[in-house]
User: What shape does this take?
Amino acid sequence: MRAYIAGIGMHVPERIVTNADLEKMMDTTDEWITERSGIKERHYAKPGEGPSDLALPAAKEALEMAGLKAEDIDLIMFSTVASDYMIPGGGCILNEYLGIPGTPALDIRVQCSGFIYGLAVARGFIESGIYRNILFVAAEVQTVALDLRTEGRDTAVLFGDGAGAVVIRATDDPNRGILTSKLHADGRYARDLMIEAPSTRDNPWLTKEILDQNKHKITMNGRNVFKHAVTNFPAVINEALEALHMDKSEVKLVVTHQANLRISEAVAKRLELPMHDVVFSNIQKYGNTTSASIPIALYEAFKAGRFTIGDTLVLASFGSGFTWGAVVLKW
Ligand code: ACO
Assistant: This one.
């Protein structure tokens, strides 16, 4: 039994924030942002809009393409770094929105690698025969927590909000489905991309000290992230292909986590793959949407006709943790 993607959907909030808009909020320039990240614009959720609100239309679209109703779903999986509430997770809110009480809801929390880790988990459930139909949504509303002043410009310009959803189903068709998944983490770099507080370790309450020290905002060692991303992306993609004795010439499209265009270009170069033909990128329009970026990119590549049934795709991620991974599948 194989796990294959039977439906896909996406949704981004209406409000578009361009680099010119950011220029008015902080000391930055379109030139700096474009040159360092490739990003031109991103979408911002409106006040009161949570990741589950973005997840719902994406989930409905994926269900429709798969020809399933919400009631047919055996398991909801929900990946986010920015849950609607601290407790419970977004999967329970989506369960409520879809009107399917009783259907289990599992939250995945692996930052930018959430979609890749989640696909591996879904594959395990399906290949073991536990579930046949899984709805897996990755949804992020992270712009509400960005520091849109000059003090926060190193990270604020990079991120956007959005959701991508897939329906993963069981099939006995040998020409479709997930062929392999490889996952990794290295906690030595856990503090190189983090939000430190409030937290059980430090202080569960938002204190004046936390606010004064900016511990509630995202901090990033950008150079270290870049260095490890450009090494680990190609390494894990090669590891996955080697496990299948597959040559990269057999790959129709590589869809990586949209962290930064410069990272994607460096990965394409190291893999000796043509950037525009084989390595897909849409970060220009959405910025970095963390775990939602791969399903959003996959959706747009699918709609653009970049692959069809039976084509081999490689999906890969790198992110906070550090965590990274790759999935090879036949669409
Ligand atoms: N606009 C204008 N200037 C800026 C901005 C900004 N938005 N942000 C920082 N600067 C300034 C800095 O203050 C610094 O000025 P100084 O020289 O006067 O001190 C200068 O630009 C250079 O700053 P650096 O941090 O050294 O810039 P660098 O060349 O390293 O680029 C960047 C920063 C783009 C973050 C780079 O390190 C990078 O690409 N890292 C990869 C990280 C990444 O993409 N993360 C995405 C999220 S993580 C993930 O998804 C895996």
Notes: DSSP finds twelve helices and 14 strands in the chain. Residues 28, 32-33, 36-37, 112, 153-154, 157-158, 193, 222-223, 225-226, 229, 259-260, 262-263, 288, 318-319 surround acetyl coenzyme *A (CB under 6 Å).
